[in-house]
Amino acid sequence: MKSCEVNFDGLVGPTHNYGGLSYGNVASQNNCQQSSNPREAALQGLAKMKALMEMGFTQGVLAPQERPDVAGLRKLGFSGNDAQVIERAAKESMPLLAASCSASSMWVANAATVSPSADTADGRVHFTAANLNCKYHRSIEHPTTSRVLGAMFADQQHFAHHAALPAVAQFGDEGAANHTRFCRSYGEPGVEFFVYGRAAFDSRVPAPQKYPARQTLEASQAVARLHGLSAEGVVFAQQNPAVIDQGVFHNDVISVGNGEVLFYHEDAFLNTEPMLAELHNKLGQRGGRFQAICVPRSEVAVEDAVRSYLFNSQLLSRADGSMLLIVPEECRSNERVWNYLQRLLADDSPIREVKVFDLKQSMQNGGGPACLRLRVALNETELAAVNPGVIMTAPLYDTLTQWVDKHYRDRMSDSDLADPQLLTECRTALDELTQHLQLGAVYPFQIN
Ligand code: SUG
């Protein structure tokens, strides 16, 4: 049976703002309090979805979340009616209001970890929502994420959903941003590659000194167990703590994999050689030929990788077997990175084409092309079981761009976040969106 990888992109929500909320994420810190443009952000994301669809890839869309999170603000002691809760939060703690308004659910690489049916013990596609418990603004995503994923992949015969792991730092889980899958073809059993930043229950394992390591080994292992993966089909590897301290807050900022290829920076991992050997052997046992493309630090420094998001690219397999790399505009404006990419294309590498997208609104918060998508490998039967409302088509693209134009503001600053009218605008927009995407009731305001 034919299988393919479907990229589900996060639709940027109407409250997209630069809150400076992610310590360890250099872009988020550097752009704190800049005025953002939610409308442009959403349209940039939609343009990428449309372009991939037009290139022949199956493209999906993942809905944003209800923000401001008034219920969350109430839990933090702000009281009164909805408008009063927002006014009080704005007066007493603008950072908390910004966190409660963050549109961070757009980075759906962090929404969940997904294992295709070819890898799992029960032959279903497994999803574990990420607890994202390193940052408050992200830790509030998983309940709605679970409902949205449940509405997209509802058929229990094909899809299994697991709740987020216990919400403590020891099980810090950031989803697919630290997970890659290698395979000969999408429908065959593959090797799932889990990269962790620290081990919570073993103090001998080195950890970064400055910035937090968001993903723990114990979280990755728990996800692999929940999904019923076999020991032959998994590899656990540690991210180099030194690069986390340089702003590599997820593994997808320093490496990307697809098919039989791992594209990575020389400094990405600890104990690289044994890790590559294990990937080579395990993929070999599954009939695949592992290929590693290492970007040397002499050509691209870690700092350039972090600035340009070279590795936060989408590595996609085309029908002819060659690969395409989707990179952000920032790769073209960085001379060293752009020169490297030209050399890579001239080499005899599986990557034959590079396509550039303007995702500046998301990039300024540390989210590149790969952050914006959740990959789900599906066979034909499973694809047919996905809610058709979330699969991108030309008419859906038109509907969503009109929806954005109608509901989104073109700037978002503190005074916009403090405006109680924003809540009404967002709820109206999201209510309409659930109809466009045929999701049913998934938001707290629709349920309670
Ligand atoms: O979790 N930024 C996100 C970016 C996530 C990128 N995802 C991947 N690499 N897969 C984060 O740090 C910034 C929000 C703000 O500062 O307003 C933010 O949450």
UniProtKB/TrEMBL annotation:
Q: Which UniProt keywords apply?
A: Arginine metabolism, Hydrolase
Q: Which residues of this protein are catalytic?
A: E174, H250, C371
Please give the Pfam families that the UniProt record associates with this protein.
AstB
Q: What is its EC number?
A: 3.5.3.23
**Pathway given in the UniProt record:** Amino-acid degradation; L-arginine degradation via AST pathway; L-glutamate and succinate from L-arginine: step 2/5
Q: Which GO terms describe its molecular function?
A: N-succinylarginine dihydrolase activity
The keyword Endoplasmic reticulum is annotated on this UniProt entry: no
Residue positions binding substrate: 19-28, 110, 137-138, 214, 252, 365
Reaction(s) catalysed by this chain's protein: N(2)-succinyl-L-arginine + 2 H2O + 2 H(+) = N(2)-succinyl-L-ornithine + 2 NH4(+) + CO2
Superkingdom of origin: Bacteria
Q: Which SUPFAM superfamilies match?
A: Pentein
Q: What does this protein do?
A: Catalyzes the hydrolysis of N(2)-succinylarginine into N(2)-succinylornithine, ammonia and CO(2).
Q: What protein family is recorded?
A: Belongs to the succinylarginine dihydrolase family.
> How does it associate, per the subunit comment?
Homodimer.
Entry protein name? N-succinylarginine dihydrolase
The protein's organism comes out as Pseudomonas petrae
What lineage is this protein's organism placed in?
Bacteria, Pseudomonadati, Pseudomonadota, Gammaproteobacteria, Pseudomonadales
